[in-house]
Write a structure and sequence with these properties.
- The protein has about 525 residues and is α/β, with parallel strands linked by helices.
- The chain has a domain of about 250 residues: P-loop containing nucleotide triphosphate hydrolases (Rossmann fold, 3-Layer(aba) Sandwich).
- The protein is built from 19 helices and 10 strands.
- It is elongated and about 120 Å long.
- It is found in: Nucleus, Nucleolus.
Length: about 525
């Protein structure tokens, strides 16, 4: 009973009552304002008029007011200065106390971190990429050299192969022919016969649509729902089973006390090194894309319990290589040291113009600039005013050639000869410890499963042979471009007259006296110059 008597009443009211009260308050305030306006009451604050001019001792009053103002400002400044002084004193005491109690080991770690920040290396520099590539070669038991099936000989690096053969540890070298779905089947078979005379060759078609771990589940659902599945699309992968079995059998033949088999994946940029590792792993383990030079440092990926793949940055091509090799495999365009228009001009010189016209569905053209103009109009690469964007068209053209879309091929060598760093003994050593029968069966299964393009729909490309690479840090700074690599724009219309003389450095004009006797009866015939 007592608790119920002490309980306070609730202040909750209905909305209608609350709104009614607010309305009455507004009306009351409005009524008060109206009455005050009638009486002449004003809320305006009057401005201080100051000291009247007629007031006696005006100057003394103003002087006293100014002195009072200055005194107030001086007091405020002193108070602020004392506040800052106390803050600095507290900060010094705190710093001295922390220095006395801080251990020496912590100081050493801080100094080490500071020195590491100061000496950080640029991961895009050629010296760093060369050092990372050498680390991969030294740490590998087996080195896989990935070759683009469209130009296998141009993707081979003699310096890289020689360095692998000369390293200690009896390292094995294996060639993987990637992107075979972009080359005619007859051309692939000829290249297998040519390359397997030196090293074992595995045919491979990497998957270019691996995103995450859920891809496997999605693929299984598609196979379950559709009885017929086109395995040649970008998500399919061929050759991974054969390569996995070869590496597994080689790892099983090793001694039990040895660690897992370390396999280094090397090659020039955009041959498909990271895509091969992703296809072997089944998930997106390494960054891969159309842009060249994405991989900057070595990365280890476990694909099996006893097999480990090591991704590596691309081999740096030497500037002494032909311009066609540099346009496809160097990073000069990405680094801004070469124009993309120059790279396209170089590539067009190595192809048949008729096949280029059929592939890109453009009319006849005289030079690379005219081709890029037609190509830009075809793709819709236009600037303001409808001007064709030739630079964007050149970038798209170069992406087709370095990516995994365009089909082109190079003819295999008819007369094969071993390079200087190879011998019959080395070839026999490289063939040992591999299950060659299993390799042959795996390549046959890959050839039967992949959908190859027709010979007529593939562009014939003239290869410039093996591409020289830089493996030593000292070679990067000392290497200078050769005269072949720094080719000028001498031949503007190279499709009309490809054998024009070189462009002179300076044009000199010389006056020549003309002594011709003309008579009034001579008439000029326009047909001599304008036909």
């Amino acid at each position: 009973l007592l608790s119920s008597e002490l309980k306070k009443a609730s202040k909750r009211v209905s909305c209608s009552k609350r709104y009614k009260i607010q309305k009455k308050v507004r009306e009351h305030n409005r009524k008060l304002k109206k009455e005050a306006k009638k009486k002449g009451v004003s809320k305006r604050v009057k401005k201080d008029p100051g000291v009247p001019s007629s007031a006696p001792f005006k100057e003394e009053v103003l002087r006293e007011a100014e002195q009072r103002r200055l005194q107030v400002e001086e007091k405020e400044k002193k108070r602020q200065a004392k506040k800052e002084e106390r803050a600095q004193k507290r900060k010094k005491e705190k710093d001295t106390a922390s220095k006395e109690t801080e251990p020496k080991a912590k100081k050493a770690r801080q100094v080490q971190k500071l020195s590491e920040k100061q000496t950080t290396t640029d991961k895009s520099s050629k010296q760093y990429l060369c050092s990372e590539l050498n680390k991969v070669i030294d740490a590998s038991d087996v080195v896989i050299e990935v070759l683009d099936a469209r130009d296998p000989m141009g993707c081979r690096c003699p310096q890289l192969e020689e360095a692998v053969l000369q390293r200690e540890g009896n390292k094995k070298l294996l060639l993987v022919l990637n992107k075979i779905d972009l080359v005619p089947k007859e051309n692939v078979e000829r290249w297998i016969q040519c390359l397997q005379l030196e090293f074992p060759v595995v045919l491979f078609k990497a998957s270019t649509q691996i995103k995450d771990k859920t891809v496997q589940a999605k693929k299984s659902r598609i196979v379950a729902s559709n009885e017929v599945l086109d395995k040649s699309r970008g998500a399919a992968c061929f050759g991974n089973g054969c390569l996995t079995e070869l590496l597994t059998s080689l790892a099983a033949n090793r001694e039990q006390n040895e660690t897992s088999l370390r396999v280094g994946v090397v090659g020039f940029p955009n041959v498909g090194k990271s895509s091969l590792i992703n296809s072997m792993k089944g998930i997106l383990a390494c960054n891969a894309g159309v842009k060249r030079g994405i991989t900057k440092s070595m990365q280890e990926v476990h694909i099996l319990k006893n097999v480990k793949l090591i991704d590596s940055p691309g081999v740096i091509p030497s500037p002494s290589n032909p311009p066609a090799s540099l346009a496809l495999r160097s990073l000069q365009v990405e680094e801004g040291r070469e124009s993309v228009l120059e790279a396209v001009r170089t590539l067009l010189k190595q192809c048949d113009k008729t096949q280029i016209m059929l592939q890109y569905n453009v009319p006849d053209f005289r030079n690379s600039l005219e081709f890029l103009t037609l190509f830009a109009k075809k793709r819709g690469y236009l600037q303001k005013g409808g001007i064709p964007n030739t630079e964007q068209a050149a970038t798209a053209f170069l992406a087709d050639w370095t990516g995994a879309k365009l089909s082109y091929h190079c003819k295999a060598q008819e007369n094969h000869s071993l390079p200087a760093y190879m011998s019959d003994t080395v070839v026999a050593e490289m063939q040992n410890d591999w299950n060659l029968n299993q390799l042959i069966r795996g390549n046959e299964e890959t050839l039967n499963g992949v959908k190859f393009p027709n010979q007529a729909s593939s562009i014939t490309f003239i290869s410039k042979g093996p591409t020289a690479g830089l493996l030593r840090v000292s070679e990067v700074s000392e290497e200078k471009p050769n005269a072949v690599a720094t080719e000028t724009e001498a031949e503007l219309y190279f499709y009309i007259s490809p054998c024009l003389p070189e462009k002179p450095g300076h044009v000199q004009f010389q006056s020549v006296p003309i002594d011709v006797s003309l008579s009034t009866g001579d008439a000029y015939d326009f047909n001599t110059d304008f036909k």
